[in-house]
Amino acid sequence: ARLGYPRQRLGMADDDGGEEPNSFVKLPDPSAGAFADPAFRAQLQKWDLARNSRMCRFRYTRPFHRRSPGAFLRDLFDSDAGRAHLRRVNAEGEWVAILPEGKCEEVRHRIVPCAATSMTHFDRLYEAAKPPIVREGTQLLMKRVDEVMDGFTVTDRLREFLLTANGDGEDYDPYGIDDDDDEDDGSGESNYAELMTTEQRDEFLFRVFAHLALGGSMCQYEERMDAYTEAAKRAYKSLVVARRDRASGEDGVAVASDVYRVDGFIAAGRDDDDTAGGDSLFPGRSVQNFCYVVVDPRKRHATVWYHAYRPYW
After folding, report:
1. Are 112 and 240 in contact (CB under 8 A)?
2. Residue 136 has pLDDT above 90, yes or no
3. Rounded Cα–Cα distance for residues 34 and 259 (Å)
4. Beta strands in 163-288 (DSSP E)
5. Phi and psi for 184 in degrees, rounded to 5?
6. Which of these, 222, 180, 203, lies nearest to 120 by C-alpha position?
7. Mean pLDDT for the chain overall
8. Is 133 in contact with 159 (CB distance < 8 Å)?
9. pLDDT by residue (tens digit) across 30-78?
10. Which residues contact 256 (CB under 8 A, 6 or more apart)?
11. Cis (ω within 30 of 0) for the bond into 38?
12. Are 283 and 254 in contact (CB under 8 A)?
């Protein structure tokens, strides 16, 4: 099924070659789309993804250059608007300024692939999973013996798939939280090692889906797959934009947004990895910690979607 984006024509940004920092202005909260919809917001609350999550959108003034995202991200988080409106959750569960004091010198980030324009990305979860993730001919998730994996109580095959190994047989760790000092609890031994490649699971659409399905520490899980796929579809369409692209195939649509995952900061004289100083971007380590920046070069919008996982106990 196609995602049904509002199609846009993407203009090429002018190359001004300047070194002056970009300027950012906080935009009003969205009045349309998933994050403005009471039903979707109720789902986030049910899945415990509302209390430690924030989304902010900014407009920027200078052209965005894909070849230098680091400078763009540094300007965003170091701007007056970024410092005034962007927040993180600290170890005590309090919302505080996302950046420590001092000029931001570097934003640690990674490019997140974002090319999906249809929900066929999830076909293999229905058709090729053995043992099945979804009961044949239905949307019902297959149950399994309860087990705790990485702090999550796994009661169905979907969460088993989301929390276990990738195609090369190693622990799936797309969020960079693996600690070599941790003892192996066996959760990396997967029934679904060949179901999807690491590249497929790294797609932004899949990441959105996985975050919604795993939820927070007090998540009330769904029993149907389509509850998560439909929510992921709506969230994805609210975060990214598309453009006409005849070369992209039958859909004639390609994603026009650029997505980056922010892992931390280096400020003058400080390093957010120094958790003793209280400056870590997240209160702990979890696959459900995320800070994404989605850039729309045509409208010159930058959207920051942040969530911090806090254990219930």
Report:
1. no
2. yes
3. 18
4. 242-244, 253-255, 258-267, 270-271
5. -75, 120
6. 203
7. 85
8. no
9. 888 999 999 999 999 999 999 999 999 999 999 999 999 999 999 999 9
10. 8, 10, 240, 241, 242, 243, 296, 297, 298
11. no
12. no
Scan for tokens 């070849």, then name that residue. Answer: 67
Residues found in the chain: 313
In the chain, where do the E strands start and end?
7-8, 24-26, 53-60, 87-89, 95-97, 104-112, 143-149, 152-156, 242-244, 253-255, 258-267, 270-271, 290-296, 301-307
Mean pLDDT, residues 265-269:
81
Kindly compute the dihedral angle of the four CA atoms of residues 233, 281, 163, 127, in this order, to the nearest 10 degrees: 20
Mean pLDDT of 213-237: 97
Determine contact, residues 63/16, Cβ cutoff 8 Å: yes
Question: Can you tell me the mean pLDDT for 109-116?
Answer: 96
Query: Is 183 exposed, middle or buried (CB count within 10 Å of its CB: 0-12, 13-18, 19+)?
Result: exposed
Reported as a pLDDT band with limits 50, 70 and 90, residue 96 is very high
User: Which ranges in the chain belong to alpha helices (H)?
Assistant: 38-46, 69-78, 80-85, 123-127, 157-163, 198-202, 204-214, 225-239
Other Cβ atoms within 10 Å of 69 Cβ, number: 18
CA of residue 78 relative to chain centroid, distance: 21
CA distances from 71 to 22, 28, 74, 112, 279 (A): 9, 25, 5, 17, 21
- Which 8-state DSSP code applies to residue 276? G
Q: What residue type is 139 in one-letter code?
A: Q
At residue 253, the 3 state secondary structure works out as: strand
CA–CA dist 201, 175 (Å, integer): 11
